[in-house]
Write a structure and sequence with these properties.
Pfam families: Methyltransf_11
Number of strands: 7
GO biological process, one term: methylation
Keywords: Methyltransferase, Transferase
Helix content: 40-55%
Protein name: Methyltransferase domain-containing protein
Strand order of the largest sheet: 3-2-1-4-5-7-6
CATH class: Alpha Beta
Structural class: alpha/beta
CATH topology: Rossmann fold
Number of domains: 1
CATH architecture: 3-Layer(aba) Sandwich
Strand content: 15-25%
Organism: Streptomyces iconiensis
Length: 227
């Protein structure tokens, strides 16, 4: 899917900007899901820990790992749990990179979740957040002239948690010691499940980093750096 490829390219860019080439990183993936980004990173040589609370998704990841060479399996650790549990599982400064992709909106307390993620980051570590762009959730329905869905999305946007918007999150990242370093849009033009065709990827990548396009993407990708 184009969404996964876009996030992967943006994450690679953020990692390249923060760490020396060839460094083997300690990565934590909160809300592992089907393990797309985690598997990609462990194949690249990094040490990855995945935290996931859904037993069915854990089975999916374990099944995928069984198909990997032994060296990759040895670098991938799976821990049952969610983003609220980082303090119970990990010491401060344990990881170089923490991924929190598309799960923060499900957190009981996004602010404490993010504070916990920043706590387990080492100095200079990268915090990668992917969140739904609630401020622009009516855009896709409006472009399709589905006015009933557009009005419903506008109403939902007005009622949504103000914490999960760019400006409040920027302030929050500063308060927890991982200020925003860069941010991207994910899905400016294409639906999340669109095929990852090269022309579409090129257009999305260019639009993902410039205003006003990135501000109306389906999701936002925020990268903070631990001070």
């Amino acid at each position: 899917m184009i969404r996964q490829e876009l996030v992967a390219r943006q994450l690679d860019e953020a990692i390249a900007a923060q760490f020396e080439v060839g460094r083997r990183l300690r990565v934590l993936d909160i809300g592992l899901g089907e393990g797309n980004q985690a598997l990609r990173l462990v194949r690249a040589g990094h040490q990855v820990t995945g935290l996931e609370s859904d037993p069915a998704l854990l089975d999916v990841v374990r099944g995928a790992l069984e198909q990997e060479p032994e060296g990759i399996r040895e670098r991938f650790r799976i821990v049952p749990g969610d983003g609220q549990d980082t303090g119970a599982h990990f010491l401060p400064g344990t990881f170089d990179v923490v991924l929190c992709h598309s799960v923060l909106s499900e957190s009981r307390d996004p602010e404490s979740t993010l504070a916990g993620l920043a706590r387990v980051l080492d100095a200079g570590g990268l915090l990668s957040l992917v969140i739904p762009n609630v401020a622009a959730r009516a855009m896709r329905a409006g472009r399709a002239a589905d006015w009933e869905a557009t009005l419903a999305a506008l109403a939902a946007s007005e009622d949504s948690d103000r914490t999960l918007r760019l400006d409040p999150l920027t302030s929050l990242l500063t308060r927890i010691g991982a200020p925003l370093e860069r941010w991207y849009g994910v899905g400016v033009f294409c639906a999340d499940d669109a095929p990852a065709e090269e022309a579409a990827l090129d257009a999305e990548e260019r639009a993902a980093r410039v205003d006003p396009y990135r501000a109306v993407a389906t999701s936002l990708h925020l990268c903070g750096v631990r001070g």
